[in-house]
Amino acid sequence: MATFEFLLQGLWVAAQPMNLLYALIGVTLGTAVGVLPGIGPALTVALLLPVTYQLDPAGSLIMFAGIYYGGMYGGSTTSILLNTPGESASIVTALEGNKMARAGRGGPALATAAIGSFVAGLIATLGLAFIAPYIVKLALVFGPREYFALMVLAFVTVSSAFGDSTLRGLTALFVGLALSVVGIDQLTGQARLSFGVPELLDGIEVTTLAVAMFAIGETLFIAAQGEKGPDKVEAVRGSIWMSKADWARSWKPWLRGTFIGFPIGAMPAGGAEIGTFLSYAAEKRLAKHPEEFGNGAIEGVAGPEAANNASAAGTLVPLLTLGLPTTATAAIMLAGFQQYGLQPGPLLFATNPQLVWGLIASLLIANFMLLVLNLPLIGLWVKLLTIPKPWLYAGILLFATLGTIGANPSVYELGMLLAFGLLGYAMRVFGYPIAPVVVGLILGPLAEQQLRRALAISQGDVSVLFTSPIAAVLLVIAAAALIIPLILRARGRGEVLAQLAANED
After folding, report:
1. Phi and psi at residue 183, in whole multiples of 5°?
2. Which of 30, 320, 357, 418 is 20 to 30 Å apart from 348, CA to CA?
């Protein structure tokens, strides 16, 4: 009953006129930027992060949530019409959705993606509201060693869940951890790795790093690829509305995708792409017409797209309750919290419940707004896809630079933006994931602080880290997090690769 009361209080906060306006601006901006080719939710959120600087914390986070959901919605449009997934989680949507678009059924494909995303987002957000309080109660008993074990779990998760190589993920993580120790030591007051540069004494700004690595690095990477043949935008022919047969074939995949995606997104070793692969495999096995898969089966769009958006809501469970980011987008959202001095976790629910529950309630409102925006404005989003790539990425470069200047008007900060942008470009060229660097910078100081507290309490006895049952369980889960993604990915991707091979034949 308490959850209902908190949710109603959150709805009251989210329904304030200014917060409704912030949510509307967020979903509109998120969808408009997310719908552009090659731009996934992580880049969308990183690019628009400076926009929220001047707002109050509640309004900023509500707009941020709208941008997050809008970016997730927008990615399906490029996947279906351009066969250009903005992120790995949209690969399966492109597989069947683009075939539907080429067959003149782009409208129903976009509609089942939008409605499926709405259904999944609604159910998953309610799941978040009811599950979060129980995880918070567990987390409130955490001490320094438990929090350190949780940080280890976060580090292992991002290293194993992003990219195809765990070693490269760990390498990227240690780059982030090295950057996190720059500045003044919180316990001793000594300067570390500042090299006599006064601007480095306060440490490296997380938002500067996130915008540089995602936006600047991506722009340089695209520019380095040179001129390529223009992507052909598939026109949406016929009605955008789904027929009765489409509804009959879609509603079960929507529900199945939701219940596959949400728990996987909420797992510390989860990830949206795992849920979409498993959803696609499940729909193919359960389909009455499996021969249509590979030729534009609507179930292959409905299920994975629902799983994708349910997983997006699921990633907010560990983020809000434990301060544990499990995706690149969640890592940037964590940076959004920290720009206001807020650390997601159980104490945030106790000290700032109106903010947290207002944020959760705003997700429900954003879901309704996105459904209203996406169906009637499909024609507008299709026109955005025709923006030439040089204009698009020049605009991204300009927007990222202006956002950094607005947040921190310093020539030195612009130099850092360029330096980290070049680092992001180099990492993309050599296949290193970007998210572990951001997570390492954000969580590195917290992990160091908790480890030093635990060792100070135990007078330097390292074995104390393993005598706590909760810490021991978290460390075991961290070890499993290195293995589980490999197993789940192999199982889900086997189906997709087999389908791709069949399509080539």
Report:
1. 120, -160
2. 30
Please state, in angstroms and rounded to a whole number, the distance separating the CA atoms of residues 237 and 225.
32
Q: Tens-of-pLDDT digits for all 505 residues of the chain?
A: 477 777 788 888 888 888 888 888 888 888 877 777 656 677 777 777 777 767 777 788 888 788 888 877 777 777 777 766 656 566 677 778 878 877 778 778 888 888 888 888 889 888 888 887 777 777 667 778 887 887 787 787 667 655 567 778 888 888 988 888 888 877 777 888 777 777 777 788 776 787 788 778 878 887 887 665 445 555 566 666 778 888 888 888 889 989 888 887 776 555 556 677 778 878 887 877 777 777 778 888 888 888 888 888 888 888 888 777 777 777 777 877 877 777 787 777 777 888 888 888 888 888 888 888 777 777 676 666 667 777 777 877 877 777 677 666 778 888 888 899 899 899 988 888 887 887 788 778 878 888 888 888 877 777 777 778 878 887 887 777 777 666 665 666 666 566 656 666 5
Pair 49, 210: CB distance under 8 Å: yes
Nearest-10 crossing angle of helices 144-161, 435-457: 160
Read off the tokens for 233.
């935008």
Return d(Cα 359, Cα 317) in angstroms, integer.
Answer: 12
Listed in sequence order, the residues at least 6 apart from 16 whose beta carbon sits closer than 8 Å to its beta carbon are none
- Residue 409 is classified by DSSP as -
Q: Which residue has the tokens 């310093």?
A: 410
Q: pTM above the 0.85 mark?
A: no
Closest CA to 108 of 305, 278, 288: 305
CA distance 281 to 278: 5
The DSSP line for 153-194 is HHHHHHHHHSSS-HHHHHHHHHHHHHHHT-EE-TTT--EES-
DSSP designation for 53: T
Q: Is the dihedral of CA 386, 391, 396, 399 positive or negative?
A: negative
